[in-house]
Amino acid sequence: MPVRRPPPPSLELSEAEMREMVGRAMDRIVPFIAELPRAPMHRMDGAHKLVRALREPMPERGASFRRLLGQLFERVLPFGLNTASPGYTAYIPGGGLFHAAVADLITDATNRYVGIWQAAPGLVQLETNVIRWFCDLAGFPAGSGGLLTTGGSLANLGAVVTARHDRLPPDFLKGRLYVSAAVHHSVQKAARVAGFPDEAVRIVPVDSRFRLDVAALEAAVTADRAAGFVPAMVVASAGTTATGAIDPIPALADLCVREGMWFHVDAAYGGFFLLTERGRARLAGIERADSITLDPHKGLFLPYGTGCLVVRDLARLRAAHQLSASYLPHAEADPDCWDFSDLGPELSRDARGVRVWLPLKMHGAGVFRAQLDEKLDLAEVVAEAIRARPELELVAEPELSLLAFRVRHPDPTEGDGLTRQLATHINRRQRVLLTGVELSGRYLLRVCVLSFRTHAAEIAALIEDLDAAMADGAHRLPRPSAR
Ligand SMILES: *Cc1c(COP(=O)(O)O)cnc(C)c1O
User: Fold this and answer.
1) Which of 256, 390, 463, 478 is the most buried (most CB within 10 A)?
2) Environment class of residue 8 by beta-carbon count within 10 Å: exposed (0-12), middle (13-18) or buried (19+)?
3) What's the pLDDT at 483?
4) Which residues does residue 233 pair with via DSSP β-bridges, in sequence order?
C-alpha cells in the first residue's frame, strides 16, 4: 500500500506571480544595463572573500525572489570582468544582445524539445534556417549544413571528430593534425578529447605577420608521410585570438586538396566579418573549407553559449555522429529535416536557434553589417593612434578589428616589462580593458573591438587613457633611484 501524503507544494506560478517575477527581474536588469558605461571594467578586490561567503549547503527552505535578486545584482555580478561593458576590448568581446535573452525566456518557458526533428519541427526549422544563412554567408554549396553549439570550442571539437572519422581508419593514432603556433588552444583540446595523443597535433611556425607558414607546413607534411604518419587535417585560423592574423586560406585549401587532408577554418573570431565587404575580401577562399567554426556570441554580439559549426558536406558530419536508439523515433526521410542529435554529441539541448533567429529577423543583416563595419573602422582609428606615437610599435596591424602593439625598446625584455606596465596603467583607469599575449617570446598588448556597445566615444577614451598612461611615464624605465 503506497503511503498517503498531502500533495506537495506547487512549483507552478500563478499568472500574477509570473508577471511579477519578470517585472522584478526587469527592475534590476534595466538599471544594470543603463549603468554599464559608468560601471568599473574589472573588480577582483574582495572576490575571495565573496566566494567564501557564497558557499552554502543546499537549502531546505526557500527564500524570497526579491532577496535572491538583491544577492545576484549587489553581491555576485559586480565581481570579475565587466564583459558586457562598452569599454570591454579585452580577449574577444561578446556583447549580449537583450533580444537573445528574451528569446531564451520564451524557449525556456515553453520548453520544447529540439534534439530530434519530430519533437519540435518548427523550432528545428528556425535553427536550420540560421545554419542555412551561415552556410550561404560562407559560400558553401547545397548539401552543406551544421549545428549551433555552446561555443567555438565545441564547434572545433565537432570538426576534429568529423575529420578523424572521414580521413582516418578506426585505428587513427598515426593521424596528424596541423595548426599554427598561434592557433586557439581549443583545437589542441579538441584533438585530445577526440582521442589523439598530444603529439598528433603538429605546431607549424608562423611568419612575421603571425600567419601559418605554408612552406613549413608542406615540409612537415612531407616529413610525416615519410615517417609513416597520416596527415589528416589542417586548421587555419581566421583570425587568431592573439593578434587577429588570418592564415593564408587559399594556399592552405590547395595544399589540403593535394594531400587529401580535411581543411577546417577556425573563424570563431573573424567569421561574421563575412557580412562586410572588407571582411569578405580578407577571408577570401573560406568557401573552400570542409568545415568552419563561427561564434555568434562574438561576431553577432549574442550572449555567451552560442557557437556554430558548418560543414561543406552535412553527410560527413552526420556520419561521424549518428547513432540510432530503440527509444527514439526513426530519422526523418526528408533530408532537409535534421535531427540535431545526429550532428553532435548532445541529445537534449536548449532551443538555441531562436536566440540567433530573433535578433537577425528583427533587425535584418544590414544592421549587423553596419555594426561590424564600424568595428573595422574603430580598430583602424586605434591603429592610426599607435602609428602616430613613436614610443609605441604596432606589431600586428588590424586585419579585421583586432590589433597588437608594444612599447618600443632596444632590449626586448625591458620592452615586455614596460608594455605590461602600460597595460596596468590603462586598465587602472577602469574605462577600457586591454589584455596581453605572449607570442614568439614577446609580450604584446591587444585591442579587440567587437562589442555592439563599443563606439567612437569608447575608442576616444581608450586613446585618452593610453596617452594618460604614457604621460604618467608608464612606457619609460624608472629613473635610477637617488639613493
Ligand atoms: C574564442 C575562440 C575560440 C573558442 O571559442 P569559445 O566560444 O570560447 O569556446 C576558438 N577559436 C578562436 C579563434 C576563438 O577566437
Assistant:
1) 256
2) exposed
3) 44
4) 177, 262
With beta carbons less than 8 A apart as the criterion, state whether 238 and 266 touch.
yes
Q: What is residue 442's predicted lDDT score, i.e. its pLDDT?
A: 93
Site to substitute for ligand 1 among 266, 309, 352, 448, most atoms within 8 A of C-beta: 266
Residue 329 is given by DSSP the state P
Rounded distance, CA 31 to CA 27, Å?
Answer: 7
Q: 465 near 432, Cβ under 8 Å? A: yes
Report the side by side order of strands in the sheet with 392-396: 392-396, 402-407, 442-448, 435-439
* pLDDT < 70: residue spans in the chain: 478-483
**374: nearest Cα among 432, 299, 449:** 449
Q: Are 386 and 403 in contact (CB under 8 A)?
A: yes
Per-residue cell: 39: 560601471
In a 13 Å sphere around the CA of 209, the CA atoms on its Cβ side amount to 12
Closest atom of ligand 1 relative to the 237 alpha carbon: 13
| Whether 94 contacts 83, CB under 8 Å | yes
Residue 300's Cβ-count burial label (10 Å; 0-12, 13-18, 19+) is buried
Phi, psi for 321 (deg, rounded to 5): -125, -20
91 phi-psi bin (left φ>0, alpha ψ -120 to 50, beta other): left
Q: 337-361 pLDDT, tens per residue?
A: 999 999 999 999 999 999 999 999 9
Decide if 431 contacts 36 (C-beta within 8 A).
Answer: no
Which residues, at least 6 apart from 80, have a Cβ–Cβ distance to it below 8 Å? Answer: 42, 43, 44, 47
- The secondary structure of 85-127, three-state, reads CCCECCCCCCCCCHHHHHHHHHHHHHCCCCCCHHHCHHHHHHH
Q: In angstroms, how far is CA 356 from the centroid of its own chain?
A: 14
Ligand 1 binding pocket, CB closer than 6 Å? 92, 151-153, 184, 186, 237, 241, 266, 268-269, 295, 307
